[in-house]
Amino acid sequence: MKLYLFILFSLSVVCGLSQNYKAWKCYDYKEGDTILVPREIHDWFPNEQGSEYSSKAYQYLADYLKFHPEIKKIMILSHSSYRGSEEVNLWITQQRADIIKHHLDQLLENRITIKAKGKGEHYPALYIDPEGNIHRLTQAFIGKPAYKNAEKEKLHRLNKRIEFVVLEADSSQLYKRMLDDIRFSDPNYARIFKLPEIRYDFARWDLQQNDSVNSVDSLKILADFMKEHPGVVVEIMVHSDCRVSKRSSIRLEQRRA
User: What's this model's pTM, rounded to 2 decimal places?
Assistant: First the structure.
């Protein structure tokens, strides 16, 4: 069963963070834009290569780039905190960037050009404090006595990040995107989203839940979306084929919805 989500109304969403620094859920990107990979995705990369979580992260990033056909060439930038020597930090970040590039090249079958660069500790992240002031997370700033150890650790983690820099883009390719992916889009205007596959158990008149299919888990993606956008009004549309009468189809579709 295929479900689609139509955004009827939403609160306005600001996409660009600055002229060249763009949010993860922008609708289209242009040459020169920098995209910060979300913290929760970055944390899926463990120290050991090839674990279940790192595979999940590689696939997620590949799906994201597939969702953006306008992106033709990117540079993966990997950053570290200032802890450790400069040489080691450069080596670690280059290794991380190279590994991500390797997996994305395989998953995307080299459909886009990907470069990789480790930046080490040379480009500290920007941080907005509770008063709204913007700071660079330098050693001098994080080392202030006012910050406790737990707070300092959080700031160090912000410096450890992954960014995509768009080196080449073609906005004419956006027409290839027929449906929006609920994981990668903001509902800033009327759109239709395709949801993960959801299967129905006719015997129990309920969603299928077994070892191979868990449709309730699929709906968690929609639940997270609704939590993230509490001002959104949505309509869930369920469709069937024409093998039964129109009346029966409508009853079945409504029951599924």
Answer: 0.66
